[in-house]
Amino acid sequence: MLFFVDTALLSEIQEAASLGILDGVTTNPSLMAKAGVKDFDAHYRAIAQLTSGPVSAEVISTTYADMIAEARHLHSLAPNIVVKIPFTPDGVKALHTLKEENIPTNCTLIFSPLQALIAAKAGATYVSPFIGRLDDVGHEGMELIRQIRQIFDNYGFETKILAASIRHPLHVLQAALEGADIATMPFSVLKQLFQHPLTDKGLAQFLADYEKLHGRS
Ligand code: G3P
After folding, report:
1. Nearest to 141 by CA among 152, 150, 149, 133
2. If we measure between CA atoms, which residue out of 137, 138, 150 comes closest to residue 178?
3. What whole-number distance in Å separates Cα of residue 103 and Cα of residue 66?
4. CATH of the domain at 79
5. pLDDT at position 115
6. Which residues of 10-29 are buried (b: 16+ CB within 10 A; e: fewer)?
7. In total, how many domains does the chain have?
8. What is the pLDDT of residue 12?
9. Which atom of ligand 1 lies nearest, measured to the CA of 185?
10. What pTM does this model have?
11. Residues paired with residue 105 on neighbouring β-strands, in sequence order
């Protein structure tokens, strides 16, 4: 399973990359606003230099023609930029055209398995089912991952399942068990994946036992 970090903060991306397990970055306009970004182009370029993996940059346009123009521009900023397209009729049409132009796409705001099926048929490189937001409204987000996995396997779609709107480590575990190709998560969740009290306790004990024999090094 690939790990992406879902943030626009350069410091977080840098720190995540230094761990050696970062495979890519996803952003959205809300994350860009949260990071206080004014110059989006310069910021996407900066992110794209911090990782060799894919960097999702979302279009602001809502019509087909504008989405295509914006997608071409975003992808021209850096070769590893993937264009994030919202799941709308215009968006789906854009996915098809961008596939023909070899511009990689991430179809976002996926809340049903049929939306994912349509995006895959249109040639999306990635689909982003939003697990946490479904949980928030009383639907089991992970069921969506399960159904998309089954549909994509039934028909041999190559579109990657990018589990998004991840809120905690259990979401990452369940998404991995259900066969999501990628989990994109806040940096706080990525850090949580490293933590286990028994690891800390065990290490402290090993060091204490060594010190008993050899003294403090
Ligand atoms: O980037 C899309 C997605 O991960 C957003 O997550 O927490 O705003 O639902 P969230």
Report:
1. 133
2. 150
3. 15
4. 3.20.20.70
5. 98
6. eebbeebbeeeebbbbbbbe
7. 1
8. 98
9. 4
10. 0.96
11. 83
Assess contact for 169 and 192: CB atoms under 8 A.
Answer: yes
Q: Which of 4, 9, 28 to mutate to test the pocket of ligand 1 (most atoms within 8 A of CB)?
A: 28
Tell me which residues of the chain have a pLDDT lower than 50: none
pLDDT at 216: 72
Token readout for 80 is: 């590893």
- Distance (Å, whole) CA 90 – CA 114: 16
- What pLDDT is attached to residue 23? 98
* CA 165–ligand 1 middle distance (angstroms): 4
Largest CA distance in the chain: 72
Q: Whose CA is nearest to atom 9 of ligand 1?
A: 165
**Residue of the CA atom closest to atom 7 of ligand 1:** 165
The structure tokens listed for 154 are 């039934």
If you measure from the C-alpha of residue 96 to the centroid of ligand 1, how many angstroms do you get, rounded to a whole number? 24
Residues with CB under 6 A from ligand 1: 6, 26, 28, 130, 132-133, 164-165, 184
**Range(s) of the domain holding residue 74:** 2-214
What confidence score (pLDDT) does residue 217 get? Answer: 63
Q: How far apart are CA 95 and CA 104, in angstroms?
A: 9
The ligand 1 atom at the shortest distance from the C-alpha of residue 56 is 1
Helices 141-155 + 113-121 axis angle, to 10: 40
